[in-house]
Write a structure and sequence with these properties.
Length: about 170
């Protein structure tokens, strides 16, 4: 595919695709580009409130979780500081892959049913015996699964790493 960048005075960058036929591949490319910001990263996730599709910025997402065989997103509402729950039409692993592709390093899986945006976490409550409770800026919380504790501690640099497996005496 041939590409060209044209420098001109404009408020926001925009993209024009010239093609002989509109194929599904071209439609997919146009959709991906429309979801990107100036850095080339996907800036929004679509959430559904009934028949309404709401685009949510990744910075407004508290967590993505599954319940009753559906995936939901807790996010800050644009109009207020309230939290709303929206249906997400992708699976948790698909969101996890999207986060990796977009460079969203703040999203960490804490259980089989939860992916948390750690930029929205106020504190980690470790007072319960062996359980970590994640407290969000909106006052809600989630529990870290024992299966994911070491992964989370490692990602948050809470575990000391030993460079050499051999002990020095």
């Amino acid at each position: 595919m041939k590409t060209q960048i044209k420098i001109e005075s404009t408020d926001i960058p925009y993209c024009v695709i010239h093609t002989r036929n509109e194929t599904q591949g071209i439609k997919d490319i146009a959709e991906k580009i429309s979801r990107m910001d100036e850095t080339g990263r996907t800036a929004v996730v679509n959430g559904w409130d009934g028949d309404y599709c709401i685009q949510v910025k990744q910075n407004d997402i508290f967590r993505i979780y599954s319940a009753d065989k559906k995936v939901y997103m807790e996010a800050r509402s644009d109009d207020s500081n309230e939290t709303e729950t929206l249906l997400v039409k992708m699976r948790l692993y698909e969101f996890e892959e999207l986060a990796v592709k977009c460079g969203w390093t703040d999203f960490i899986r804490i259980s089989n049913t939860d992916i948390v945006n750690f930029s929205k976490v106020t504190k980690l409550d470790m007072s319960l015996s062996g359980i970590i409770k994640v407290n969000f800026t909106n006052g809600k919380d989630a529990i870290v699964s024992r299966r994911y504790m070491n992964k989370i501690k490692d990602q948050l640099n809470m575990v000391r790493r030993v460079k050499n497996a051999e002990k020095m005496y």
